[in-house]
Structure formats: C-alpha cells, structure tokens
Amino acid sequence: MTGLTIKLAVCPAVVYLSDVIFRQVNYAALWQPILVGLLIAVAAHAIEVIKLMPGTLWLSSGFDFMAATVIVYLSALALPGAFLTFPGVLLTALFLTLTEIPQHYWLIKSGMAE
User: Model pTM?
Assistant: First the structure.
C-alpha cells in the first residue's frame, strides 16, 4: 500500500512537470495531467502487484514504460484540447519510468515485493 501512496503523489507530479518542461506535451487544463498521472499510478501499482519480485526490477520497469506510453498517448486522443507528439509521449513515459526504478528497488530491498 505504501507503493501506491507514493505513486499517487509522484506520477501526477511527473506528468505535470512533463507538461511544463517539454514543448511536445501540452495539456489544456491543470486537471488533465493530474488525471493521467493518477491513472498511471494505478496501472503501475497493478503491474507491481503482478510482476515485481526479486529479479524482475528491469522487467517491471519495462512494463511500466509500456503502460505509461499507452496511457499518455491515449490521453492525447481522449482529453479535449490536449496535444502531445509521439516524442513527447516517449519523454513523459521515460521520465515516469525513471521515477519508478528507485521505487521498485526500494520495494524489493524492503521485502514488500515478493
């Protein structure tokens, strides 16, 4: 549950920062990157519950990257006024994955991922 709590804070912040930093990512309203981040947090937590265990750090991170890519890409199609280029989608997914790796490492080392 601690992993989900961290993700619910980190993922929306990362998607919002991607909106601010990357010119290829443009959400029309503040609630949009927050909503996308929350969806990614739930998906990433589900992936952790299913896949994360000792020895699967990189596999789980790869699944997180793929899930984030799909969710961010679909958000551009589903949210009114959102504009994302594919490089922007990949940058956002990479940024999210880079925050997931230390979380996965911590969950494995603390024994919470078994």
Answer: 0.91
Domain that holds residue 33: 2-109
For the chain, count helices (H), then strands (E). Answer: 4, 2
Question: At CA 106, angle to CA 110 and CA 94, rounded to 5?
Answer: 160
CA 34 to the chain's CA centroid: 11
Question: How many structural domains compose the chain?
Answer: 1
114: in domain:
no
Helix axes 2-21, 86-109, angle to 10 degrees: 150
Residue 96 · residue 11 · CB < 8 Å? yes
pLDDT tens by residue, 20-54: 999 999 999 999 999 999 999 999 999 888 887 78
